[in-house]
Amino acid sequence: MMYNWQQSDWPDFKYNTSQIDELLIDFAQKSGKSTGLLEALPNDYQQETVIELMVAEAIKTSEIENEYLSHQDVMSSIRRNLGFKTNMAKTHDLRAEGASELMVSVRENHDKPLSKEMLFNWHRMIMKGSKGINAGQWRTHKDPMQVVSGSIGKETVHFEAPPSMNVPKEMQQFISWFNDTAPGRTKEIKKAPVRSAIAHAYFETIHPFEDGNGRIGRAISEKAISEGMGKPALISLSRTIEANKNDYYNALKEAQSSNDLTHWINYFVQVVVNAQAEAEELIAFIVKKSKFFDRYKNKLNERQMRVTNRMLEEGSKGFEGGMSAKKYMSIAKTTKATATRDLQDLVEKEVFLVSGGGRSTRYEVNLK
User: Fold this and answer.
1) What is the pLDDT of residue 153?
2) Nearest to 197 by CA among 272, 103, 273, 110
3) What's the topology of domain 4-287?
């Protein structure tokens, strides 16, 4: 099989966006609505909303690579990196610290030209806590950089990237392309989601680092969208991609077989639109959650606040299957008798809704 980078027209990408004109209009409308929702909020709500969106992206971009980070660790780290005060303990998870630093850097550098130094810094961030990786430099190993699956001896090669010796030249060309296609530049691509899609496929094809290419590729996509909007995007691409990882890998594999990116762009722009819609939902949820805690912050004890907050980390519906007395005991680190009293108090105050009975009794947060 001949990959796109081995073909004579690499990297002269071709594409037709006629099939996604409505999607692009939808994206513009949704991004405007999200911005409007955010700007209508008080400043403290705006800050918390932005932080929650960054936390969601940090956690999901790591989950795609099978790394699972603590919501509290990422939240604590992002708040510190943004210069906000926090009562949360400082995280000792270097991976969470690095993922958080990446989110903050992408946001703070959304309007700066892409550079090798920026990419190296991002790579050092996400490689925190990783061993045996040459962080902050292009890959140099002579072995082929392959994406494979299957057991040893029965591997299936899905993709092979350009040789390491080609990476410096390929990345110099990529960085020039990215900056030249930015708003107001000589080769501007006016439709931000289209530029974001091309940038992602282009970068992932080069696969310039030993590890972490997916996370940095998604950060580049977000940067492209932010540049097109003229401000940091309120979006979590990874949250949407992670929900249908197989679709993502299949579409990317097809994109890496040809320099006609029409199908890939159609797929990726839909991901961007879906991510924008999810951002709207997340903003609405965060507002409800913020008002909820404002309403009850002086009416609940420390155990009740801890458990409720932990439930809402999972989203508007809380834990799958609801909260139980056993789960409450575990999270609050308390006795059965205390858990029972706390839960009954939460129901009486209409903080929790209760269903079932006996051992099947379950509780959900009442986000009215």
Assistant:
1) 73
2) 272
3) Fic-like fold (1.10.3290)
Q: How far apart are CA 172 and CA 275, in angstroms?
A: 30
In contact, 220 and 199? CB cutoff 8 Å: yes
Query: Could you read off the pLDDT of 182-234 as tens digits, one per residue?
Result: 999 999 999 999 999 999 999 999 999 999 999 999 999 999 999 999 999 98
The two three-digit tokens of residue 55, written as one number:
């936390």
Strands 156-160 and 146-149, by their bridges, are antiparallel
Token pair for residue 116? 């090798």
Is 85 a residue whose pLDDT tops 80?
no
State the Rg of the chain over Cα.
23
In CATH, 301-365 is 1.10.10.10: yes
- DSSP structure string for 216-234: HHHHHHHHHHHHHHTS---
- Residues β-bridged to residue 354: 363
What are the residue ranges spanned by the domains of the chain? 4-287, 301-365
Residue 38 near residue 283, CB atoms below 8 Å: yes
Q: In this structure, are residues 238 and 279 in contact, taking their beta carbons and an 8 Å threshold?
A: no
Tokens coding 318: 């809380």
Query: CB pairs under 8 A, 24+ apart, for 315-319?
Result: 315/285, 316/285, 316/288, 316/367, 317/364, 318/364, 318/365
The answer to whether 273 and 30 have CB atoms below 8 angstroms apart is yes
